[in-house]
Design goal:
By secondary structure, the chain is an all-beta fold. Helix content is about 0%, strand content about 50%. The strands form 2 sheets. It has a 6-stranded mixed beta sheet, with no helix packed on it. A 4-stranded antiparallel beta sheet has the order 1-3-8-7, with no helix packed on it.
Length: about 110
């Protein structure tokens, strides 16, 4: 059974940085496009960033230049490096594969 487990969230001040990880198992990770999505309090899911099996990346305008998505197929792990965090980045962050499997999420709170 496919599983995705996110980690690395936490509380950070505005302007700070966090690195999220997503450990994948139960499917051939290297063959799938992967993405990060987030859900802020009281709002719907928002796509944040994606990376395909070839390593091509894409970003939402709201995070472009601040977030970097990457993957390590040898470790079956997806990453999201986040810098210059803003209060509006506060959300639960989920990793997701291209057939809709999603992890349990990790909370990111940006606050002074």
């Amino acid at each position: 059974e496919a599983q995705l487990v996110e980690s690395g969230g936490g509380l950070v001040q505005p302007g700070g940085s966090l690195n999220l990880s997503c450990a994948a198992s139960g499917f051939t990770f290297s063959r799938y496009s992967m993405s990060w999505v987030r859900q802020a309090p009281g709002k719907g899911l928002e796509w944040v960033s994606g990376i395909n099996s070839g390593g091509s990346t894409s970003y939402a305008d709201s995070v472009k230049g601040r977030f970097t998505i990457s993957r390590d197929n040898a470790k079956n792990t997806l990453y999201l490096q986040m810098v210059s965090l803003k209060s509006e980045d506060t959300a639960v962050y989920y990793c997701k594969n291209s057939v809709g499997k999603r992890g349990q999420g990790t909370q990111v709170t940006v606050s002074s």
